[in-house]
Write a structure and sequence with these properties.
about 500 residues; four-stranded mixed beta sheet; alpha+beta; about 25% strand; 3 helices; 24 strands
Length: about 500
């Protein structure tokens, strides 16, 4: 392929380039050397005609400033060799200057022999005497006593008799006595909570506490444990693995150290519905001291004596509740229901009074009696009206309670320049749910205009075929393209910093 030769930096006048980029090559026709740049900024020669000329001029002759090349016999000529030589000489008869081998020291008798390289050397040496008398030391009634110097030699040796006491003094916390070693036996007996075991294999007596003793490092007591007095347990955790706990105190105090109202107060339990869950009733210190009944928790309420309510759901309470007010979204629905009930009760009282009046006039004529029955009917109708009013009031309370059922809207801001809010309206006109969704405009929706560079576009409607897209002359001007139909061209940066297609040229130095 034409015009694809990668050219190097070069110079006809400069012997060594002043600097090169890392791994950048250059050639000097002045010094006939090839150079390359190092990562530390230095320039090193790695080849060139200068070195090939030296190799070509190599010779086995004794020629000044020429590389040495072995001849066909493997040899070369030299006036002298200045070096340390290692290996075997072809011929050798004796050392130029003979030397003596000698061994001497405080521990070895002196010995010496001459050596000139014509024969082997055998040095004879004997250990010096230390003054120790040869013999056997130690026995059934004697112990040997040795003195050893820093070199491990015995410098003296003697025997000394064995002295053994006939009696052994023994003492305890109370009492003492003496044992005859030849006849008596020492017996160690365990008392309450302590047992002794003799191990015949190594003549050892083991002393250990039994299971009636509480160890300071832990232990188990078999049977009942009664404590007379107060039991004080210091530590972080008390574990009671029992089936029944009986407490005489009718009021149990929790959070004794809650001086700053920073701890949640209550109790919790554990259950398993396929995985471990927790349920709790507690006073939430972080929520104005409200009492909360929660279930389905996945985090055990133990960290820093607090309950992570985000891992729980609200539990269902089955109970009769007596309350002076019931607030639903800030509205006391109990007041509304009570007002309707009071009105119905007033109507019922009026009906009862009318009925009583009819009874007091029942001794009159039949007309009066009929009139009383009519009054009773009227009262009964009023009572029915009162019951209907009560039912209406009760229905109002139910509606007040259900108006907010299944309303799960999170308070916060919705909608922005990049997102739009999505609402779900209930039948009563309240917002049942609300979420945010990102604004997405499909490419097919944009049918006209050119998107500028400042808005992420190109600022241009078309480019040269087979061109390379490059930036404009400024940071905000439209993009443009550069193209070439010449084989071997590569994209380069000109001296003005403008991208252009051209053949590679290493430049000069």
């Amino acid at each position: 392929m034409a015009n694809t030769v990668i050219q190097l930096k070069y110079s006809d006048t400069t012997a060594i380039p002043a600097s090169l980029n890392t791994a950048e090559p250059a050639y000097s026709n002045n010094s006939n050397k090839l150079f390359i740049g190092q990562s530390d900024g230095s320039v090193v020669a790695i080849g060139g005609k200068y070195y090939t000329a030296l190799i070509d001029a190599a010779t086995s002759a004794n020629t000044s400033s020429a590389i040495v090349k072995r001849g066909s016999d493997g040899g070369f000529s030299a006036t002298y060799v200045s070096a340390n030589l290692y290996g075997n000489a072809n011929t050798a008869t004796a050392l130029l200057n003979g030397r003596n081998f000698e061994i001497n020291g405080l521990d070895v008798e002196s010995a010496a022999v001459a050596f000139d390289g014509t024969a082997g050397v055998v040095l004879q040496g004997n250990l010096k005497t230390t003054g120790v008398t040869a013999g056997t030391y130690g026995g059934a009634s004697q112990i040997p006593v040795f003195t050893v110097d820093t070199k491990g030699r015995l410098t003296s040796a003697s025997n000394t008799g064995i002295t053994v006491a006939t009696n052994l003094s023994v003492a305890g916390d109370t009492g003492s006595g003496s044992l005859a070693l030849s006849t008596d036996t020492l017996t160690i007996t365990g008392r309450d909570g302590l047992e002794s075991i003799f191990v015949d294999a190594n003549n050892t007596i083991l002393l250990d506490v039994d299971n009636t003793v509480v160890r300071t490092t832990g232990g188990t007591i078999s049977g009942d444990l009664s404590v007379t007095g107060n039991l004080v347990v210091s530590g972080n955790t008390v574990t009671q693995d029992v089936e029944t706990i009986v407490v005489q105190d009718s009021l149990v105090k929790y959070a004794n150290n809650n001086s700053a109202d920073a701890l949640d107060i209550g109790f919790f339990g554990q259950y398993n519905d396929g995985s471990t869950k927790y349920t709790t009733l507690f006073r939430d210190a972080s929520d104005s001291g409200k009492y909360k009944l929660l279930t389905g928790g996945t985090t055990e309420p133990s960290a820093a004596n607090t309950v992570d309510t985000t891992t729980f759901s609200t539990a269902t309470l089955v109970a009769n509740i007596e309350a002076t007010s019931v607030l639903v979204k800030g509205i006391n629905v109990l007041d509304h229901a009570n007002g309707a009930f009071d009105k119905a009760n007033t109507v019922a009282t009026t009906a009862q009074n009318a009925y009583d009046l009819a009874n007091t006039t029942s001794t009159t004529a039949t007309g009066a009696y009929n009139h009383a029955n009519g009054a009773f009917d009227t009262a009964n109708s009023a009572a029915t009206t009162a019951q209907n009013a009560y039912n209406l009031a009760n229905g109002t309370a139910i509606v007040a309670n259900t108006d907010f059922t299944n309303i799960s809207v999170t308070a916060g801001d919705y909608g922005s320049a990049a997102i739009v809010p999505v609402f779900n309206l209930a039948a009563n006109g309240r917002i049942a749910s609300i979420t945010n969704t990102s604004i997405a405009i499909g490419a097919s929706a944009i049918t006209s205009g050119t998107l500028g560079v400042t808005r992420g576009g190109t600022g241009f409607s078309s480019y040269t075929a087979n061109g390379v897209i490059i930036g404009g002359t400024t940071s905000t001007s439209a993009l443009t393209s550069v193209a070439s139909s010449t084989e071997g061209h590569v994209l380069q940066i000109s001296s003005s910093g403008i991208p252009t297609f051209a053949h590679l040229n290493g430049g000069s130095f």
